[in-house]
């Protein structure tokens, strides 16, 4: 799998209170990934893009919430979230490019 395909797997980091606590406490980072991505693909993408060693990857599907858009009812899209735990001594910094 080429680097172009690996970079397509990751959509964005999930920045929330829960993910910040997980990063500080457990060295675990949360990413929004493509729905078709597997654990192995996510692991390879993180290792290639950030030059770190991944200990484990947990993925889960997030169901889209039902929302009202004006008078019509709609639903947000489903998406996949990946919890990536890094090996000790490795870190990802989102502040520096």
From TrEMBL:
Q: Which InterPro entries match?
A: Nucleotide-bd_a/b_plait_sf, Ribosomal_uL23-like, Ribosomal_uL23/eL15/eS24_sf
Q: Which GO terms describe its biological process?
A: translation
Recorded superkingdom: Bacteria
Keywords (A to Z) from UniProt: Ribonucleoprotein, Ribosomal protein, RNA-binding, rRNA-binding
Q: Which HAMAP family match?
A: Ribosomal_uL23_B
PANTHER family named among the record's database cross-references = 60S RIBOSOMAL PROTEIN L23A
Q: What function does this protein fulfil?
A: One of the early assembly proteins it binds 23S rRNA. One of the proteins that surrounds the polypeptide exit tunnel on the outside of the ribosome. Forms the main docking site for trigger factor binding to the ribosome.
User: How does this polypeptide assemble, per the annotation?
Assistant: Part of the 50S ribosomal subunit. Contacts protein L29, and trigger factor when it is bound to the ribosome.
Q: Which family does it belong to?
A: Belongs to the universal ribosomal protein uL23 family.
Task: Output this protein's name.
Answer: Large ribosomal subunit protein uL23
- Recorded source organism is Methyloglobulus morosus KoM1
């Amino acid at each position: 799998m080429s680097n172009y395909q690996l970079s397509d797997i990751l959509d964005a980091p999930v920045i929330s209170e829960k993910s910040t606590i997980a990063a500080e406490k457990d060295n675990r980072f949360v990413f929004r990934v493509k729905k078709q991505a597997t654990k192995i693909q996510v692991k390879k993408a993180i290792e290639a893009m950030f030059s770190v060693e991944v200990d484990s990857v947990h993925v889960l599907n997030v169901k889209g919430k039902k929302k009202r858009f004006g008078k019509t009812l709609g639903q947000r899209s489903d998406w996949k979230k990946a919890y990536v735990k890094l090996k000790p001594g490795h870190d990802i910094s989102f502040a520096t490019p």
